[in-house]
Each structure stands twice: as structure tokens, then as C-alpha cells.
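This is your field. Have a critical look at both lines of this record:
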Amino acid sequence: HTVGDTVKGFAYTDMKQKLRLTTQEVTATQDQFGWGTVTEVRKDLGVFVDTGLPDKEIVVSLDILPELKELWPKKGDKLYIRLEVDKKDRIWGLLAYQEDFQRLARPAYNNMQNQNWPAIVYRLKLSGTFVYLPENNMLGFIHPSERYAEPRLGQVLDARVIGFREVDRTLNLSLKPRSFEMLENDAQMILTYLESNGGFMTLNDKSSPDDIKATFGISKGQFKKALGGLMKAGKIKQDQFGTELI
């Protein structure tokens, strides 16, 4: 720009409390929501988010973050925020509500079964985890039974489509492997155990669920499925004494 030019920009105070004006594109303003990347976490304050402002990161206050700090965003996570200026002229980031995401997203369609998509966590509830799918601009839901642990706010997940909700045209998603992948993982675990124990174990499909759980951390049903798959593949044989590699 040259002297006398009229420029349109975003005015703010930077980290050194100096007044700045940037003509760079800013993802979030007071009037519009935008995505930002978490750059720092301060347990006594909240999380700092990069929205494209030079020498300025936006704080999302701990007051609007989850009560459990282990569910707070971590560095690199994504938040959808807009800006608010308080009475002391400090800029804060406000998280988007469910309605804001509903306005942002388009309806899902009912032919996406078993597809995997990146999904950003935007809302945590007792009923489950609400996510936004940035690559196809859709919303999804993860029931607690479809995850091993509760994801944190802003976390980017790899989620699999397991269903479609006609009532609000959103996707039901899972963070668990497909059943055949679980079977393969369990079978591989059993093979590895046998190989490291001289090719034999005292467990077989008649063993108690407690003994199976103590050794492999899986249910008897999962164990029997894995053994069945290994026997069909000609990898093992069973007798009343246990299971042996072939």
C-alpha cells in the first residue's frame, strides 16, 4: 500500500498491547465464526488459539471449557470460535453453539456406511460426542458405546460411519474398528502370545472367561471367534490341555 490509500483491515491490540491493523485474512471476527488452531494451554486461564492475527492469539477462557481439564483441547486441536471484546477492551474467543454448527453444515446422506472421515469434536455431552466433518461439511454423533474413551474438545478424530439419523440428517459414527478388524487384532495377539510362549498355552475355548480376560483382556466370545479364525486358517490346534501352534 502507498500513502493515502484507503485500506480495509482488522484492528486489535497485539501481545505487547500495541494497536495494530492487519489486512491479512482473519478466520474469526466478532460477526463471524471461524476455525482456529490451539497453540498453548494454560490451566489457570484457558487455551490460546491462532486465528490468523499477527502477534496475537485469542484466549478461550477456562470458564467456557469443560470442567474436567483432561477434556480440554490440546496443542494442535481445532476450535470454531468468534471474537468478543470485554469492557476492558480485551479480546476473547467464544465457542460456537449447536445451532451455529447446524447453520454451517449441510444435511448428511444415507449411503456413507463404513466410510472413514476426519471429525472435529465440538460438543461434549453425557449422551455422547458431537462432531463436525470438515471434508464433507456434515455433522455426526458418537455414542459412548462406540468409543473406548471420551474424546477431548477440539480433538480431530478418525471416525467411521455406522448409521444415518433421518430425523436431523446427521451421521452416527464409531471410533471402534470394524468387527473383522477386531477379530484380526485379537487373532494376531493370540498368535504373538503363543510364539513367545513356546507355541503352547493352557487356554482353549473351554477356558473360563476370567482366565481369558486376565491373559488377553478380551471377552470369551471374542477369544472363541479369534481361535475359530486361526483354526480355519490352519494356524493352531486345540485339545483338552490347551492350544498349540501348528
Observations:
- The chain has three domains: 10-96, 107-174, 179-245.
- The longest strand covers residues 116-125.
- DSSP finds four helices and 15 strands in the chain.
- The longest helix spans residues 179-195.
